[in-house]
Amino acid sequence: MEACLLIHGFTGGVHEMEPLADFLKKKGFDVSTFTLSGHGGSRKEMQDAGNREWIASAEEQLKLLLSKYDRVHLIGFSTGALIATRLAAFYKERIASITLLSAPVFPLHPPAIARTLMQPRMVGRYIRNFFAVPARATREFYRIVDESLEWYEEAKSPALIVQGAKDHLVKPRSSAYLNEHLGSADKKVLLLPQSGHLVCHSPNQLELFDAVLEHVRDHPANEQTSKSASERVSESSQLVTRILKSQLEHV
To answer: Counting Cβ atoms within 10 Å, is residue 26 exposed (0-12), middle (13-18) or buried (19+)?
Structure first.
């Protein structure tokens, strides 16, 4: 069995990716979903959790999976896609593939969102959440967008980049930018013609799910990596030894 970690977006929750999660589970994957720090609770919780806490909560979930699996597939939606690239940049050899859904490399600002807003039920809920969040949280969102520009070249895992042609929150050129700047030598862009931002709930849902399944199957997590498990264990043991030696020298 292989593992997939799904990371939802800003102001959202696991419901944003739930259809995809259910699909991958039925295909035999160990799928992990969770709620980012500060999300899913009170306004104060979101106020107190910045983008560092969002990333840390995702990293914690990744470490749990990496304690059971040699490598993991990362699938991020919206802000979760930015977090996925961050994790892929830091855990290069442990990430089998990354899938970036509606990544807000160039997000629209609130006035533009209001002008281009469509009216489906889930989109309405997303937008209401976006405008209801504390100002500090919104600033943290734009901060992580800016900082992510420095992460893309270091994310070298095989990548599937998915963009809805009718996305009301993300400028279409975001996918082209990712295709040009991601560090992976293996990249593919999927444009969904009838999809808005919430691609997992879009008319192109089945096309998306099939593409994600093909992507993760084409890059199996159990392939031999550049370092064997025994080599990594040996390196870890050496690191622990050095740390203990340093501590004893200062006693």
So the answer is: exposed
Dihedral angle sign, alpha carbons of residues 158, 228, 26, 200 = negative
Q: Is 78 left (phi over 0), alpha (psi -120 to 50) or beta?
A: left
Match 């909560």 to its residue by tokens.
57
Cβ–Cβ under 8 Å, residues 106 and 36: no
CA dist 104 and 142 (Å) reads 10
Per residue in 27-59, pLDDT (tens digit) is 999 999 998 876 766 566 666 667 788 899 999
With H, G, I as helix, E, B as strand and everything else as coil, classify residue 195: coil
DSSP state of 168: S
CA distances from 85 to 29, 79, 158, 183 (A): 21, 10, 11, 10
Contact of 106 with 171, CB cutoff 8 Å: yes
Q: DSSP label at 229? A: H
C-beta neighbour count of 77 within 10 angstroms: 27
**Type of residue found at 10:** F
What are the tens digits of pLDDT across the range 129-138?
A: 555 666 777 7
CA distance 128 to 50: 20
